[in-house]
């Protein structure tokens, strides 16, 4: 069973986004530069991470899409021309090359595997090497949403407990939501991409159970979005150990939020186009925090 490896959150101002996520209680890593013109900063958990990404000073080096070659940089650039938000969903894999062949056989993406490596910083500031192979898939019904799987070649150099301690008690990405005018249009693709059985929920919602989390598809009507809006990844949930720690942090930073049965919710207008939820594992938020805080 696959798990959520990471989500790619595209933003115009990487340092501003990093500062905001720090205010939310996350530990944000240093700036990394890709040879194809994008730059990122990571928020790491035990087996998943949030990738904040933007166009860098070398954006002119972004290669174009070509037959059977998915240009990661071009996708981020084109996405940012439309909006900020969750540009891509990434699941785990132990063999990206085999997955690329399987995606082609299933007609959900005929792309060559994409391998790259870069320098990374350890907590003590020293350098190490990380390397990845990606296999991309494509949902024609969601042309502005990216999907791929990621294979870590030196996981011992990437995952580090020192980067995984967060003041808000966050421990991982619990769920990602795709909003679409007709969720049924994405059933076949997502079943093949995730390898998970589909669960049909009320209000036309679909859920795909992953290892330690899930992917959910909700209707645009239920999400109060225009039916004409392109299908897009609109929200994600972070699992936390202590709800009241999150509430105290948000209140101290005067960041607006609401509370509900789904947990603690920050609106897209606050979070760079993303609805961010802190899941509390059944723990009810304290009564002193029921109202939204001012910005």
Key traits:
disordered C terminus; 2,3-Dihydroxybiphenyl 1,2-Dioxygenase, domain 1; 16 strands; alpha+beta; 6 helices; globular; eight-stranded mixed beta sheet; single chain; 295 residues
Quick summary:
The protein has 295 residues and is α+β, with helices and mostly antiparallel strands. Helix content is 17%, strand content 35%. The protein is globular and about 50 Å long.
Overview of the structural elements:
- The chain is of the alpha+beta class and 295 residues long.
- The chain has 2 domains: 160 residues, 2,3-Dihydroxybiphenyl 1,2-Dioxygenase, domain 1; 120 residues, 2,3-Dihydroxybiphenyl 1,2-Dioxygenase, domain 1, CATH 3.10.180.10.
- It is 17% helix and 35% strand.
- The strands form 2 sheets. It has an 8-stranded mixed beta sheet, sandwiched between helices.
- A hairpin with a 2-residue loop joins β11 and β12.
- Fraction in helix: 10-25%
- Please tell me what the overall shape is: globular
Residue ranges: pLDDT <50 for 5 or more in a row?
282-295
Extended strand count:
16
Give the terminus-to-terminus CA distance: 40 Å
Return the structural class. Answer: alpha+beta
Q: Quick check: average pLDDT?
A: 90
User: What order do the SSEs take from the amino end to the carboxyl end, as H and E?
Assistant: EHEEEHEHEEEHEHEEEEHEEE
CATH domain fold name of the largest domain: 2,3-Dihydroxybiphenyl 1,2-Dioxygenase, domain 1
Number of helices: 6
Rg, nearest Å: 18 Å
CATH architecture of the largest domain: Roll
